[in-house]
Each structure stands twice: as C-alpha cells, then as structure tokens.
C-alpha cells in the first residue's frame, strides 16, 4: 500500500540514524512527509524461509530488507558498502546520495612518533611490529601487505564502542572509514588518512532502497540521486561482482569522475597480505557502464584469478 507519508527504515546506531535523518530532511525539503522507523536487529525478527528464498542477505541490511518486503517501511537507508551487490527480489535502488570521503583512516591513541606517523601516512613499507585493530578482511589484507610484522586484533561494535576500545588499548591504532566518523563529528584529532589504502566498493556513499512497485517513494527519492556518485559506485560494485566478491572479501575499488573521464583503481589481496594484484585504468564516460567489469577482467587476466581461486578454496 502506498501513501504520501514516507516511512524511513533505519537501524538504531548513531551513524545509521544520522544517515536516515539526512534522507528525511532532504525529502521534507522537497515537500514530502517522512518519519523514521527503527527496526530491531535481525535476531529480534522472525526470519521466514520464503524471504531467504527471495535472496535476502547482508548482515547489516537483512532486517531492513525484510521490513520493506513486509510493508512496514517505504524506504530503507544503508551505508552502501554494506549492501550486497544482488538486491533481494522486489527491492530496487531508489537513490545514491552524494559521496562523502571514501578514505580509510587510522585512529590512534596519541602514542605514535612523528616518524611512524609519516611512514603510515605515506604507506612506506616498514618492518616495524605494529598492533592494529580491524574486523575487515580487506583492511587487514592491505595493511599486512605493507606491514607484514603487524599483529591484527579483531575490533567489532558500533563506532562509539570501537573508539572507546582504541582509547583503552595498547594498540598502535585501529582502522575506520573516515565518512562514518566525520558524519557524526567523532573523528579524533589523533587520526590520519591512509591514502594508500583502497576503500571498499561504494565506501562513503549512502544508498536508499525501496520496493520496486512503490512509485510514490521512488519518485520522491529520485531527486536525491547524485549521478556522478551513482556512476562511480556502480563501477566499483560491478568490479566486486565480476570477482565474485562480497563485503567479507579482500577486494577494493575506487572510481572517481574527473571532467569527462573515470579514473578506476582496484585490487585483490590474499588475507595474509602476501599476494596482491591491482589494476588502474582510465575510462571515458561512454564506457562507464562497463568500467568495473572491464577492470575486473584485466585484473583476473594478470594474476587476480590465482587469488580468487585461493579465496574460493579457503572462504572466510
């Protein structure tokens, strides 16, 4: 059932609420009535088999997808890097908002020397024995490729919890997405951009999804779509798809639109960081729809297939 009142589904974390509130403001600026609907975590919801059969997946998106399919909400707002490349049947992309920072950053507790900070910012290889926290296999793989003597500590929880753990730890630092901390004004001064680390596909972008037949919601969200961002993140997600990857695989990609070109970088790294294959290409805007697939094909041709096969044999 469609109404002129848009129910926006969101998880209840500080970052998720910030993102959903942004969408609510944008819709209201365009004359639409909107409200936030907080969806409990998937553990609190009866997950029925038919919904799984429809392709519902994604640790951070599943409960919102189910709420959409059950018509409890009209749209859902996600960090796009968390959204599986294959959307569930009946759910479609309604808008991609203008991207914030795509960068990964290292948050430290103020214990790094100036020399170490220079090394880490530049990505200069070093034999120093670091202790770094992250739960991302992609970040772990890229970090170990540069700094093989590192001990990786697992770090989970929401942004606030993870920042607290860093402050209380003896780690050299922990890796975060810049956009997540900057959006809720929690980026510490003791942090540095890791420009050498390629991000997750679509990192820094916010995605709005809706039911495919909810015409009112789709039309309301259409003006929120930022075309350059949508084009670039599609290329990155196509790259991921072509490499058969998901958000738990060590695959990274970044597409940036510069004038009439798309600059594309992508890589795949073994989880232990020992092997890495990368690709860098420039595409015309006319080639944009195929950019990610073309880049992935080239990466596979020049050694990436060996890593993909290893990941298939030893899934994480």
Automatic annotation (TrEMBL):
InterPro entries with a match to the protein in the record: HemC (IPR000860), Porphobilin_deaminase_cofac_BS (IPR022419), Porphobilin_deaminase_N (IPR022417), Porphobilinogen_deaminase_C (IPR022418), Porphobilinogen_deaminase_C_sf (IPR036803)
Co-factor requirement: dipyrromethane
Domain Porphobilinogen deaminase C-terminal: 231-300
Domain (Porphobilinogen deaminase N-terminal): residue spans on this chain: 6-215
Gene Ontology molecular function, alphabetical: hydroxymethylbilane synthase activity
Keywords from the UniProt entry: Porphyrin biosynthesis, Transferase
Pathway participation: Porphyrin-containing compound metabolism; protoporphyrin-IX biosynthesis; coproporphyrinogen-III from 5-aminolevulinate: step 2/4
Entry keyword Transferase: yes
Catalysed conversion reaction: 4 porphobilinogen + H2O = hydroxymethylbilane + 4 NH4(+)
Catalytic class of the enzyme: transferase
Enzyme Commission designation: 2.5.1.61
Family, as annotated: Belongs to the HMBS family.
Annotated function: Tetrapolymerization of the monopyrrole PBG into the hydroxymethylbilane pre-uroporphyrinogen in several discrete steps.
Subunit structure, interactors included: Monomer.
Listed name of the protein: Hydroxymethylbilane synthase
Species: Niabella digestorum
